[in-house]
Amino acid sequence: MIAARTDGIGSLRPSELLAASSRFGRSSSWLAAGLTAVALVTLPGCIQEHASPKQHAKEHVSPKENLGAPAPLAPPPQAAPEPLGVNGAVAPRLQWRRCAGSFQCATATVPLDYNQPRGAMITLSVIRLPAADPAHRIGSLFVDFGGPGTGGVGELESLGPRYPDVLRQRFDLVSFNSRGVGGSVPIRCAADTAAVSSPVRPEQRAAFFAGSAALGRSCAAASVDLLSHTSSANTARDLELLRQAVGDESLSFLGYSYGTYVGATYANLFPDHTRAMVFDGALDLVANSTGRPGQEEMPVDMRADTARSQAEELEAFFDRCAQAGPRCAFSAGDPHRKFADMVVKLKRSGDGRLAAVLRTVSHGLQSSTRWSGMATSLQGVYNSLRPDGAGVQNQPQTLDPYIPNHSASFLAVQCVDSDYPRDQQAYNRLIPVEDQRQPYFGLTSLFDMAQCIAWPATDRDRYSGPWNRRRQRPILVVNNRYDPETPVWNAQATRDELGDARLLIIDGYGHTTLNVHSACASDAEVSYLVTLQPPDDGATCSADHQPFR
């Protein structure tokens, strides 16, 4: 819906490559301006798919084709015990004040524990960009930019003016910092998440798990009252009170990445209060919460198979690079073989340089607009690996391979939302399996959220399904065909799990439409939010940017 930024990692010299970083996880590094006009009737560039299930992933995918691990179709909506709602909590009064340009800010007071709606309270930071055409205002559009741990206030302040004119005219754009995020009673920990070492090599694992336990204890000591109430379900309850506070009869919602999980939770806690919901870059709801039978000892990212999605996009990068010839700096010879040889040499060195390469690749895969810069950086590293090792000997060491250290606010949500292995041996058993199955990204996926193993809190009010409660109208799920963080098979599973959703696939490379701009997809999203008419299930759109052109 917003044009993707093209700065990327640039052309980094080998000595600069270690400084390249990425926001690794469930939220992207964002974007810059450039908008498309919105057509509310036709969707140019969108087509209805009718592809054979045998076609390659690069070709069109039929609406019900299963691209990943089998995800059974959602059963008919069922009568389940009524989950905890807001339990009589009173909507906050929002006192809006001008805070930045045309934006208005407020604070909202909500219950810490919805089992005690008149007990302890916490405050949330809220921001809105008022509708530019008040006479034709539809209501508020709540935007969740993902994370968890991303501050919605800062993101909307940065991105709000760049949304399509129609949305800014017809809606107040609203976002907030969820509980546990800075400005809304943040999680505070005495220990530093960055101090937790990598667990990949055997000699590192004891220190990793000990460091994770120490981190959990420090968070519990500094934020003891909050840690047991940080689930996405409580964020969804907060969202319901905010909906009431702005005076909307039902919720209009746009969620990116992890924000799709918040939206799906809301849609099942408050199905009668949904108006229109767009999930852009969808998490697999079952994989993110409990997993399916047989996945009890798998971490979340293994259940979602994000390592496979990263590997597939990297292979697509190699193919497109080879086809581009001189327009891609890494094209000489065989890019697949060059990268494999480079990884072998860097892994053999054991000095941490492989981590820098994987970090650069993870950053580059977020958007194909970054592929040219990534190719230049990879070629620089490849050139530097000549026998004398010139240009790389004096670089600082980095943990090898790259394992991200998440923020405390990320862990505070993810560790209570999801089931995960509590046994260190479960991780140890999976190391050789994943390293062989996905040699570039398997261990990153395996250990991505292993810091949860000793997390000291649970949230009894989290929501883990069912996900298909009856709603007034379908939810629109949008996903890039090659998304390194939220694979297209996750979006297909979510479409099925919701029971009433429509899936739109963009033939592009990167994470969400914040990084992969498509005028066709933007038109579809805006048209649905304004007119309540979703595209056909299985429609596809082209991306506006093609790499190396």
Q: Shape, please?
A: globular
> Order of SSEs, N→C?
HEEEEEHHEHHEHEHHHHHHHHHEHEHE
What's the main sheet like? 11 strands, mixed
Strand order of the largest sheet: 1-11-10-9-8-7-5-6-4-3-2
Strand content: 5-15%
Figure out the total of helices: 17
Which spans have pLDDT < 50 for at least 5 consecutive residues? Answer: 4-72, 390-403
Class of secondary structure makeup: alpha/beta
Number of domains: 1
Q: What is the arithmetic mean of pLDDT?
A: 83
For the secondary structure, the number of strands is 11
Helix content: 25-40%
> Radius of gyration over alpha carbons?
23 Å
N-to-C CA distance? 22 Å
Written account of the structure:
With 549 residues, the protein is an alpha/beta fold. It has one domain. Helix content is 35%, strand content 12%. The chain is built from 17 helices and eleven strands. The protein has helices at 14-17, 152-159, 165-170, 202-222, 232-246, 258-269, 285-289, 300-304, 306-324, 335-349, 353-364, 371-384, 408-417, 424-437, 442-447, 488-498, 519-531, and strands at residues 47-48, 97-100, 103-111, 121-129, 139-144, 171-176, 251-256, 274-280, 476-482, 502-509, 539-542. It has an eleven-stranded mixed β-sheet with strand order 1-11-10-9-8-7-5-6-4-3-2, sandwiched between helices. Helix 17 links the parallel strand 10 (502-509) and strand 11. Helix 5 (232-246) crosses helix 6 and helix 11 (353-364) runs antiparallel to helix 12. The relative contact order is 0.20. Residues 4-72 and 390-403 have low confidence and may be disordered.
